[in-house]
Amino acid sequence: MAVALPGATLPAVVEELLSEMAAAVQENARIPDEHLLSLKFIFGSSAIQALDLVDRQSVTLISSPSGRRVYQV
């Protein structure tokens, strides 16, 4: 996992982390523990709870004809 540079903004750190996670999932079909710990450090325990909802397929994307998109939990 990449080390955050001093002065890097939180959105940049999160974007890098999510990019690394996507690459890991494509390669191994799983998220490494160190990435999960990083998510928990940044977002708190709610990040792990949110991933659990995704794992249980409890999140649905609803799209309207106008193009508006909403996630239903």
Automatic annotation (TrEMBL):
GO process terms (BP): double-strand break repair via homologous recombination
GO cellular component: Shu complex
Name this polypeptide is given: Zinc finger, SWIM-type containing 7
